[in-house]
Amino acid sequence: xxxxxxxxxxxxxxxxxxxxxxxxxxxxxxxxxxxxxxxxxxxxxxxxxxxxxxxxxxxxxxxxxxxxxxxxxxxxxxxxxxxxxxxxxxxxxxxxxxxxxxxxxxxxxxxxxxxxxxxxxxxxxxxxxxxxxxxxxxxxxxxxxxxxxxxxxxxxxxxxxxx
Length: 163
Prior knowledge:
A hairpin with a 7-residue loop joins strand 5 (92-93) and strand 6. Helix content is 39%, strand content 17%. The chain has two helices and seven strands. The strands form two sheets. A four-stranded antiparallel beta sheet has the order 1-2-3-4, with helices on one face. Strands 5-6-7 form a three-stranded antiparallel beta sheet, with no helix packed on it.
């Protein structure tokens, strides 16, 4: 009695093999005919190649999914390390004395000052900041005010009437 042959782990009901005969079944009319040895090898080779190609595609997809997962894990871990480093290295309240500041774990004295509370209103800002740095300054504060006559507002004026 003919049996289905298994090629590459997949049963192929259109091709069967037994000790005494090798044959192929026509799916449209269910007729079978015997195959000679070269036809048998050709069919086996074709089915094997199809199944190997399918296996190749499955393995390719699995590798792609694993690669994406690995990259996302590495990116997540890198981001977490970066966030931790940034939190550790930012200016914050000094842990040993909350009346002072610390930067990168060491106490720091913040020194700053300016001729105007809004740095963007200072016409020679670069020279002003260089002067601050030359005397040991390391901190600036800026507001976006325009309270004095001649100050430029921090937005673009579209029209006189805002109706």
